[in-house]
Design brief:
CATH architecture of the largest domain: 2-Layer Sandwich
Strand order of the largest sheet: 7-8-9-10-16
Radius of gyration: 24 Å
Distance between the termini: 17 Å
CATH class of the largest domain: Alpha Beta
Helix content: 25-40%
Number of domains: 3
CATH superfamily of the largest domain: Ribonuclease H-like superfamily/Ribonuclease H
Strand content: 15-25%
Length: 403
């Protein structure tokens, strides 16, 4: 641990109190694990070590470090869990040895379990899932024997009706756990977004909706995300449900970002302001910022995209507004910040194109769908089952990462 720049003191721990100086406190010479300052102190120490080896910190992600000479090595840091990747395993191993000379590290081999995410390799590609996490959650909530259902959310919109829960802690804990599952289950993003909006005063109907998500996951517990070899073409589907909220008439935005055929980013989010038209709702939250960030990450890797990204939108007016430099009377109230997308289009850095509503994949992130419509869009989200029926259910704490 690095030396702290400021002075920190702590009470004498129980059982180790100095009998001669019982009212004194301990002055810390270095950070202790568990203190609020410890993660920051450790990161500063690791940052200096990586910098001395030759790594540069990504401008897009502070926890991402890259070295390109002589061979690309990528390091992703989460506190004391570290992922290392690169095209040459020998060079990666040399880096681990260098890091081992500076810190006591443990090489766990190929990535198989990281922060609750399980990784399986096959000739088909990489398969990411959270089966163990899900099965543990079903057991914890006593839903492991529940009857599965086909969709995570009913077609009836949630409201504030129902009997308030006497102890909302169970509901909040459940919804928080479901949020973490959206890392590998984009098909539940909208449903989780809906139940998250009633955290303050949940009712029995909201708890029933959250348990419906568990019932849906019960029937698809072996599902996860596939990542396969594909092109480096970046595209996104963007959509918005204008004034869909019954209480404040705010819209829900959603997008799906694909690298080739692989789904790499998605979102279902309620807009912070009220949109005065469907055009404004669609235009405000086109996935331009997300695509720009992904392009910068690829530049950090030294792999600039060969073609400009494409955003697929089913609103003709929003597409026209993105490429037309003339401010019309009905859209002049849109803040200048939201014309960021137009600047990118005029600079020829991306293009916005039309897609028919029936082919709009982002619909799954913006509204409740019928069974057939949901299953159709779910099939386009790179979701699938492992090639082998045997799932890895690793969960040991010291196997969280390759470090």
């Amino acid at each position: 641990m690095s030396q702290l720049l400021t002075r920190y003191f702590m009470q004498q721990p129980l059982g180790f109190t100095d009998s001669n100086l019982p009212n004194h406190v301990c002055k810390l010479n270095k950070s202790l694990y568990g203190l609020k300052q410890a993660p920051r102190a450790w990161f500063d120490k690791l940052f200096q070590a990586l910098k001395s080896i030759g790594f540069t910190q990504s401008c897009s992600d502070a926890s991402l470090f890259v070295i390109k000479d002589p061979v690309l090595v990528i390091v992703l840091v989460y506190v004391d869990d570290i992922l290392i990747s690169g095209p040459d395993p020998t060079v990666c191993q040399q880096f681990i040895q260098k890091l081992g000379s500076l810190f006591p590290v443990k090489d766990l081999g190929h990535l198989h379990y990281f922060l609750g995410l399980e990784v399986q390799r096959s000739s088909k590609g990489l398969f990411l899932h959270q089966s163990k996490y899900l099965l543990d959650l079903l057991q914890k909530t006593k839903m492991d024997g529940a009857k599965p259902c086909c969709t995570p959310l009913g077609t009836t919109k949630l409201d504030h009706s129902g009997i308030p829960l006497s102890n909302p802690t169970e509901y909040r804990s459940l919804v928080g756990a479901l949020q973490y599952l959206t890392w590998t289950r984009p098909d539940i993003s909208f449903a989780v977004n809906q139940v998250c909006q009633f955290m303050h005063t949940p009712t029995d109907l909201h708890l029933q909706a959250a348990k419906r998500i568990l019932r849906f996951l019960k029937g698809t517990s072996d599902h996860g995300l596939w990542f396969q070899k594909s092109s480096l073409n970046l595209s996104a589907f963007s959509d918005a449900d204008w004034a869909g909220c019954l209480f404040d008439r705010r819209s829900t935005s959603g997008f799906c970002v694909y690298l080739g055929t692989n789904l790499i980013s998605w979102s279902a989010k309620k807009q912070p302001t009220v949109a005065r038209s469907s055009t404004e709702a669609e235009y405000r939250f086109l996935a331009a910022v997300e695509l720009t960030w992904i392009c910068k990450v690829f530049q950090d890797f030294g792999f600039p995209l060969s073609s400009k990204p494409t955003i697929w939108c089913d609103n003709i007016s929003a597409i026209s507004l993105a490429s037309n430099p003339v401010f019309h009377a009905r859209t002049k109230h849109v803040e200048i910040d939201y014309h960021y997308i137009r600047e990118l289009v005029l600079a020829n850095l991306l293009q916005v194109r039309n897609v028919c509503t029936e082919d709009q994949i982002a619909d799954i992130h913006t509204k409740s769908l019928t069974k057939n419509r949901f299953l159709l869009l779910q099939s386009k989200l790179s979701l699938g089952t492992p090639t082998s029926s045997k799932l890895s259910l690793r969960g040991c704490k010291d196997e969280d990462a390759k470090s």
